[in-house]
Design brief:
Two copies of one chain form a homodimer. Chain A has about 220 residues and is an alpha+beta fold. Chain A contains eight helices and four strands; from the N terminus they run E-H-E-H-E-E-H-H-H-H-H-H. Chain A is globular.
Chain lengths: ~220, ~220
């Protein structure tokens, strides 16, 4: 059986989980406490990060971008990047926007500060980081709104990896209760559409010990 | 004519320059001072970052990973990712290693602190960051050595985007004189091989106002 080493509130692990589900691929989930630096895990991925996927054929895949590109190529039943080179470039541009920019400006400042840091025993959240994260998120919700007022989904007419990358980052921030949806109706409508996909449901059932999500977290009509 | 908006010491711009050269594609280089947030440039890439490529057909491409994936697909004369899905996954894993991990642990701490920060008027370099960068680089040179003792090039038998990503990050750090090559013979031999490729030569002729590279920077036999 395919195995995905993950952390529940790692947005990059979530991205791979949704891609696997969209493609109808079965997998076992295994939590990897990366901060313990387990030797067998470092042998799979010397970078020591999740997600790592061990595919049915034994292929070991590390780095979320490398994993989803591999899955999109090997299991092409449901293409998630686009149907021509220009569309794929637009999808990948937006994936990078959320994987890098949103992650650095929002997710790191909120989820990492409030949850991961505590698990790793690195002390209390920095109030400066939390202020920055809460400030930055409005700009990203506006950008999602800007895109979805012009397109059906973030990268174009079809649901794509761009939607998955954006929604999985947001889902982690939503879990810690820090997405202020008010005043961002277009982004909220788009997120409701992503949330209602069967591939997204397992994420809404995640629970992290000691951190309860707000009631609207799993609510499809929030 | 194809135009690449870049910054000379941006490793991601350098990665695209080498890819274009490896594929024999002509292009004009245009320096974009991203910190000035020029409106026409933000219209091309709302993320406000280089590199941005405007291809011959007018296609606007942003984000270095999206650009190189596009180029590898549209100009397949010289494939830089690999010849099967597993090989491409290994190449992309290593590209992520250098684009994300090396960049955060080394390039940001040294090149950004010493050069970019000054251009942006953000003050003097942090000595803590510089110490961290100098400490971290040894580990990455060891990893390059580990790989090249087992493979001809970083990702396997063929020169690939992994070599380009690693060498362009290193080239920026080498420009500011912070790569201590002593004791890292395998990494040094590999870098000498990359440096001697015609695609890499233009990078060795770069000059940044107010920052002179050490003499060995452009030396093929350093």
């Amino acid at each position: 059986m395919r195995v995905l080493f993950h952390i529940p509130l790692s947005p990059f692990s979530r991205k791979v989980r949704v891609v696997l589900a969209e493609k109808g691929l079965d997998f076992d989930l295994q939590v990897e406490k990366v901060w313990e630096r387990r030797e067998e895990f470092l042998a799979l991925n010397p970078a020591g990060q999740v997600p790592v996927l061990v595919d049915e054929n034994g292929e070991v895949l590390a780095d979320s971008a490398a994993i989803v590109e591999y899955l999109d190529e090997v299991y092409p039943n449901r293409p998630l990047l686009g149907f021509d080179a220009a569309q794929r470039a637009e999808t990948r541009r937006l994936v990078a926007w959320f994987d890098l920019k949103f992650h650095a400006e929002v997710t790191q400042n909120l989820v990492w500060e409030k949850v991961t840091k505590r698990f790793m025993g690195l002390g209390t959240p920095s109030s400066g980081a939390i202020r920055a994260g809460l400030h930055n998120i409005a700009y990203h919700l506006d950008y999602i709104g800007f895109l979805t007022e012009r397109r059906k989904w973030l990268a174009g007419d079809a649901f794509s990896l761009a939607d998955i990358a954006a929604a999985t980052q947001l889902s982690c921030v939503d879990y810690v209760g820090d997405v202020r949806w008010d005043g961002h109706e277009a982004a909220k409508d788009w997120y409701a559409r992503v949330k209602s996909r069967p591939s997204f449901r397992p994420l809404l059932a995640d629970s992290v010990s000691g951190v309860s999500p707000p009631r609207h977290y799993a609510d499809l009509d929030f």
